[in-house]
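Exercise (ungraded).
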Amino acid sequence: MECAFLSKRCFVVGMGPGKESQMTKEAVSVIEQVDYVVGYPVYVELLKKAFPEKEYGSTPMRKEKERCQLALSEAAKGKDVAVICSGDAGIYGMAGLVLELQKDYPEVEVEIVPGITAAVSGAAVLGAPLMHDFAVISMSDLLTPWEKIEKRLRFASEADFVICLYNPCSKKRADYLKKACDIMLESKTDDTVCGYVRQIGREGQEAEILTLKELREARVDMFTTVFIGNSQTEIRNGKMVTKRGYRL
Amino acid sequence: MECAFLSKRCFVVGMGPGKESQMTKEAVSVIEQVDYVVGYPVYVELLKKAFPEKEYGSTPMRKEKERCQLALSEAAKGKDVAVICSGDAGIYGMAGLVLELQKDYPEVEVEIVPGITAAVSGAAVLGAPLMHDFAVISMSDLLTPWEKIEKRLRFASEADFVICLYNPCSKKRADYLKKACDIMLESKTDDTVCGYVRQIGREGQEAEILTLKELREARVDMFTTVFIGNSQTEIRNGKMVTKRGYRL
């Protein structure tokens, strides 16, 4: 294969929310040019349809370390490799792990290719909730103690940040969103404007705008991104909009 | 002009950090298809070279309301219009203002087209600083009281967020970054790993990794995005990496 890149390169690529049109041109061009693509099985299957001529590898959830090692070891053999991540490569993606593991493969060059993360793509669906200072918090306590998550929720609410929650729920954590809402309700009002988007940019995308009190009772799943407004967030023409302070 | 979109549509488009390759395919396709493009003068001049056949409008800094009104009024006349924003449309961009002003132009449909914001593109240059929960704070006090900015800096530091600062400096606010560092140093250590990127994705891009104590003395300008690590952020092979907690 003729290739514009040097070999032994490992790209960590943010694929955006789902639609090919929401990938950057750079991400598309990297995928086109690499020899080997590694990712979470669902995303690998999607890519195989578009690029059947590539070599592919995948590892399941909780085997992220092995996924990054597979990518780096294939790159060390002289291939150009892409590790694909949904959303952005560097926001709860594989960029950090690849850079941490790179020490064992010193001959491999790593490059991070950014993508549209769910905070950004979900915000565009709901309106403009992130027009002012915001905090992004993952509710997954697989790798983070719950006390740390609680403290971040509490302090971000108290300082009137707009808050965006990733991984708001899973089977084992069915009541976590309710617990998070209770913490945020210590300093945010019941009627704080909130929203969530499920399956952003994919078939079956759903969006809902509701109050913080209603969010406490909402059923969301792991494919949902949740937005909690600040004291200046309003509903305008059915959209969630955080005012920045312009005089209108 | 033959156009796939309905008329009277106003798109608010995130153009990404600067390189055309970091625009999404959707953003490129919207620019190709609209009749009229409105933006800040510098970005309009850049686009004119690539798309000389469009009609263009612009308003200077601090005339953002007029810029959005111009876009909506041109759309109301039956044109397809794009309001262009650097980075993302919804993060300190024009999405909120267009949605707020839409009430005066009820016949215009507004659509937000997301883009790569500086937190995401700057992080990719530095390594992977945003691998864990983070807060984005603008240091501009044009529209936000300084006390509110201070409180957000203090609470985000105290809760061990990675912090990304937009607009860290201007002529009138020469000492603001120093003031911000002093607040963050109340709860973050002197040797917290920090980084900044100037002119992300543009000619003359510069990146620097340094400690929080050193950042306090750094000279940055308004084209710089600043990253302050959390307690788990390290330097790996010259890159800024926030560990997520995987066992390696």
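Further reading is listed at the end of the chapter. For now, observe: DSSP finds eight helices and 13 strands in chain A. The radius of gyration of chain A is 20 Å.
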